[in-house]
Amino acid sequence: MTKTDRPSAFPTWGAFENWTALIVHRRHANVDAITQQLQRIGVDAVECWPDVPENADITPFNIVFFDVDMGYDGQFPWQPQQAPVPTVALIGSEAPGRIDWALRQGADAQLIKPIGSAGVYSALVIAMHNFHRRHALATEIGALRESLDQREAVAQATAIVMLAENLSPKQAYQKLRLAAMAERISVEAAARRFLNEQQAGPDRERA
């Protein structure tokens, strides 16, 4: 597989000039058709088959086209649905096993083979949109999970203080809040530290 020195960058919506595409497909007329369409919109193409080496530098590439018909597990140096760039599945066979494999890869768009004289531009637009939307959603879910974990930590710490010092929920939370203010940290951070200290106590006793 050849590489370029062009850094990976996402352009403005629909502008793909100076992009580089990696096409993971055996030599075929479909590859030629994709390459010709890419060239018309200013996208360079690099071919690679049968797999992308584990130590391959993916950073020069802005998008990956991959063959579903002959694809296999472990073909890429990333886990399924964790490609670092948008991906487009090239589908010829409608065999259930092939469709299932394609779905597990988490492609951002698809092209049906045989490839004609159009369709690549639309696939690029859809793939880029879905890739960014998927990553934005993952970031949002991660933030929500972190917020939930922090709230649970505060609730647990408050409950422990209530039981240990026979305080009301409001009093226990206020004590936790004052401790956080004294340390100049958030209540959530104070709660997490308190829980860690509580956990460390029994561990030291067992040691």
Can you offer a commentary on this structure?
With 207 residues, this protein is of the alpha/beta class. It contains 5 helices and 5 strands. α4 packs across α5. The protein starts with 19 loop residues before the first strand and ends with a helix.
List keywords for this structure.
2 domains, 5 helices, Rossmann fold, 207 residues, elongated, alpha/beta, Arc Repressor Mutant, subunit A
Set down the secondary structure blueprint.
Blueprint: E1 20-24, H1 29-40, E2 44-48, E3 63-67, E4 87-91, H2 96-105, E5 109-112, H3 120-165, H4 169-183, H5 187-206
Parallel strand pairs: 1-2, 1-3, 3-4, 4-5
Helix pairs in contact: 3-4, 3-5, 4-5
Domain Response regulatory: 20-128
Domain ANTAR: 134-195
Keywords: Phosphoprotein
Radius of gyration: 26 Å
Tally of alpha and pi helices = 5
- CA-based shape: elongated
Provide the CATH superfamily of the largest domain: Response regulator
Classify the helix fraction into a percent range: 40-55%
Specify the CATH class of the largest domain. Alpha Beta
Q: Care to count the β-strands?
A: 5
Order of helices and strands: EHEEEHEHHH
Category by helix and strand content: alpha/beta
Low-confidence stretches: 2-13
Give the termini separation: 55 Å
Average predicted local confidence, pLDDT: 88
Specify the CATH architecture of the largest domain: 3-Layer(aba) Sandwich
How many discrete domains?
A: 2
Q: What composes the largest sheet? A: 5 strands, parallel
Strand order of the largest sheet: 2-1-3-4-5
CATH topology of the largest domain: Rossmann fold
Beta percentage is 5-15%
Domain ANTAR: 134-195
Protein name: AmiR/NasT family two-component response regulator
Domain Response regulatory: 20-128
Keywords: Phosphoprotein
